[in-house]
């Protein structure tokens, strides 16, 4: 599917104020004063609000190879009408995924001073920091993020692309390109499911890809009262989620498709 390419990067995406570095806070409990933690603790939270259990019982697993097989295409494509948690046989080489994971781990293992070399600029979401923080009273996510424009290539601002680890940029280039291929394939079948001409849906979509990398450090003294990612709705038409697999190894690419309703994926 050919999509309409934007000549300029999207603007006015929300920006964010500078906030304390969560990874640094988690590394030094002496910094976790009552005043600091007040920004992160959500008193309204309880364990019943948290997603748990076997998500595979609620969200279908999509086999990309069956989508591409004429004999099984119709049956497998019907599952695209639902949110999906894990994609198998998605075509992205395991080596590409593992190298991306290793480079992300390497970046978040750098000293804070090196990570902040690619920090967000005032009013901009791209770079290292947090997202959509607009006031000193706002509750904060217990996470640090790195957001980068990756597609199309002329959207890339290499001032925000980490130079360390040395393989980070090449790894992200490969990962971004492979995930883009998967996205195009999925959109083709979504168009078929919706009964929309494939060329018509391409007119409605713009070719723009961002990659957001999240780091959720442990919170020893309030693990059940902080949130790594505030519940939200996205403007994306297609999202692929890759779990680094610290707790449970995630072999596939997770996708979330949102339209007023939300599907949870294993974090």
TrEMBL record:
InterPro entries reported in the protein's UniProt record: DIOX_N, IPNS-like_sf, Plant_2OG-oxidoreductases
Ranges annotated as biased composition (Basic and acidic residues): 1-12, 257-267
Pfam families referenced in this protein's UniProt entry, alphabetically: DIOX_N (PF14226)
Occurrences of domain Non-haem dioxygenase N-terminal (ranges): 59-163
Record region (Disordered): 1-25, 245-267
GO molecular function terms noted in the UniProt entry: metal ion binding; oxidoreductase activity
Keyword terms: Iron, Metal-binding, Oxidoreductase
Protein name: S-norcoclaurine synthase 1-like protein
Species lineage: Eukaryota, Viridiplantae, Streptophyta, Embryophyta, Tracheophyta
